[in-house]
Write a structure and sequence with these properties.
This protein is of the alpha/beta class. It folds into 3 domains: 202 residues, FAD/NAD(P)-binding domain (3-Layer(bba) Sandwich); 107 residues, FAD/NAD(P)-binding domain (3-Layer(bba) Sandwich); 112 residues, 2-Layer Sandwich (Enolase-like, domain 1), CATH 3.30.390.30. The protein is built from 13 helices and 22 strands. Helix 3 packs across helix 6. The longest helix has 25 residues. The chain is globular, with a radius of gyration of 24 Å. Bound molecules: flavin-adenine dinucleotide and nicotinamide-adenine-dinucleotide. Flavin-adenine dinucleotide binds next to helix 1, strand 2, helix 2, helix 3 and helix 8. Nicotinamide-adenine-dinucleotide binds next to helix 6, strand 12 and strand 18.
Length: 465
């Protein structure tokens, strides 16, 4: 092996996006990953398999809900093996496609573990050394363990085990009421497990606005067996019947399986970072500037290993900024809005400033809310359990943030991200014609509420538009 202009370590959505763009910009690029194809956590054991399975969950739930509008199906049977193969097939097809796309771009893809020897050399296990002018570290993250629990048991799952879909347990405890806990809880509840969620903080999805979470929580409480808030797991031990869990503040219970989803830790060790000047910051992530450059000038870091939020689209965007910076472009990572989407039922999505953040910063904002009970489209879907809210600067009328809960919120948030990023005023959204009947109209109607001119909610106010 000789020398690459750009070496990318880690082929997840951060790493492959960086490598693909570096190659498109004419830079000779090498991509190293442990797997046979690019894809990373997102494709192999994250975003894609979880969303494939959540689609199946949605089909089951919709069939059940149809009874309310006069359509009864007999109880479904789930062929777990077939569902698993379909999900694995989706992953195979996507990662195979990425492998082809790397080849087409003439990227040298190496399967192996890279380790930095010095700021311009890596060793790839058993395959020799490779020099590089610039490297991009995109080694991602792994599940965090539950503090104080050392038990090793096949019944104790992390997200990868849950996505393997080996079986549908009769009872499942999900520890952590964040993204993974709620998505996997939604999946297994739809598949027929009795799901209990335990969250140590006072609310599910800590950080998200309470009014959005309240709507989601109502449905979750209906579909899950129990939701324990403000509760910690005191200990877990294996018995012949399952895992016996002690809770702080709740009676102990036995579950067939326990899924731990209490956050993720960046992968910062085991690849020779100490042989460079790159530093790990106080939060445990590799420290970078706004182009992704670490304290070692030849080395960039992007994605989950470089900081929150640990989301695929944030990783890709950072990867593309780093590739452009290496190509000599004057770029920086400075988004106004990074969307967050929780693919539960209903979905919850937000971007830009949240109401919680605004209140925490003592920032003056006006919050307008359009309840989906007033949306014709939501009624035709028989899903009025939704709300669209805008967080607006009352002086400039700029849309600073948006939150949506409701079916399809994850797709709807795109317009909101564009509005915040482009510096749109509430009137820009209010004056844009939205197709009828769609739930996208709820964004327009929420903007109209700000001016007191909303057709379907009578709330007189300033009448400015
Ligand atoms: P990763 O995807 O973690 O990839 C890192 C890669 O680096 C891996 O392929 C690994 O093999 C490789 N690697 C590590 N060390 C080395 C080394 N020394 N040498 C060579 N290769 C190495 N995000 C969303 O935006 N939407 C979602 O719906 C979503 N769902 C998720 C569901 C689950 C269950 C999980 C666990 C995560 C989910 N995420 C989701 C988060 C998303 O997967 C991550 O934010 C994203 O994968 C981060 O990308 P990355 O490129 O930083 O790293
Ligand atoms: P998370 O940070 O979203 O949620 C973890 C939850 O566990 C928090 O609510 C936290 O308060 C709680 N918790 C922590 N310790 C606990 C304990 N001892 N007992 C009970 N509760 C405890 O983390 P996650 O759900 O593991 O997901 C990891 C990351 O992966 C997410 O933050 C997100 O960045 C990414 N992800 C994104 C998506 C998506 O975009 N749809 C889906 C899955 C994962």
């Amino acid at each position: 092996m000789d020398k690459a202009k750009v070496l990318v370590v880690g082929g997840g959505p951060g790493g492959y996006a960086a490598a693909f763009l570096a190659a498109d910009l004419g830079l000779e690029t090498t991509l190293v990953d442990l797997e046979a194809n690019p894809g990373g956590v997102c494709l192999y054991r994250g975003c894609i398999p979880s969303k494939a399975l959540l689609h199946a969950a949605r089909v089951l739930t919709e069939a059940k809900d149809a009874a309310a509008i006069g359509i009864e199906f007999s109880a479904p049977t789930v062929d777990v093996g077939k569902l698993r193969s379909w999900k694995d097939g989706v992953v195979r097809r996507l990662v195979g496609g990425l492998g082809m796309l790397a080849k087409q771009r003439k990227i040298l893809f190496i399967q192996g573990r890279a380790k930095f020897i010095d700021p311009h050399t890596v060793e790839i296990d058993g395959q020799g050394r490779l020099g590089f002018e610039y490297a991009i570290v995109a080694t991602g993250s792994r599940p965090a363990a539950l503090p104080g629990v050392t038990l090793e048991s096949e019944r104790l799952w992390d997200s990868t085990d849950a996505l393997a879909l080996e079986k549908i347990p009769k009872s499942l405890l999900v520890v952590g009421g964040g993204y993974i806990g709620l998505e996997m809880g939604t999946l297994y509840a739809a598949l027929g497990s009795q799901v209990t969620t335990v969250e140590m903080l006072p609310a599910l999805l800590p950080g998200a606005d309470k009014d959005l979470v309240d709507i989601l929580s109502r449905r979750i409480r209906k579909n899950f067996e129990a939701v324990y808030l403000n509760t910690k797991v005191g200990g877990i031990e294996e018995t012949t019947d399952g895992l016996k869990v002690r809770f702080e503040g709740q009676p102990e219970r036995v579950f067939e399986n326990v899924l731990v989803a209490v956050g993720r830790k960046p992968n910062i060790s085991g690849f020779g970072l100490e042989n460079t000047k790159a530093v790990v910051d106080e939060r445990g992530f590799i420290g970078t500037d706004n182009q992704g450059r670490t304290a070692e000038p030849s080395i960039f870091a992007i994605g989950d290993v470089a900081g929150e939020p640990m989301l695929a689209h944030k990783a890709s965007h950072e990867g593309r900024v780093a590739a452009r910076a290496i190509a000599g472009e004057d770029v920086s990572f400075a988004p106004k809005a990074i969307p967050g989407v929780v693919f539960t039922d209903p979905e919850a999505a937000w971007c830009g400033l949240t109401q919680t953040q605004a209140e925490g910063e003592g920032r003056e904002v006006e919050v307008v809310r359009f309840p989906w009970a007033a949306s014709g489209r939501a009624l035709t879907l028989n899903r009025t359990d939704g709300m669209t809210k805008l967080i607006i600067d009352p002086k400039t009328e700029l849309v600073l943030g948006v939150g949506i809960v409701g079916v399809g919120a994850g797709d709807l948030i795109a317009e909101a991200v564009f509005a915040v990023e482009a510096g749109a005023k509430a009137s820009d959204i209010a004056h844009t014609i939205h197709a009828h009947p769609t739930t996208s109209e709820t964004l327009m109607e929420a903007a109209d509420i700000f001016y007191g001119t909303c057709a379907h909610i009578y709330r007189p106010k300033r009448g400015k538009t």
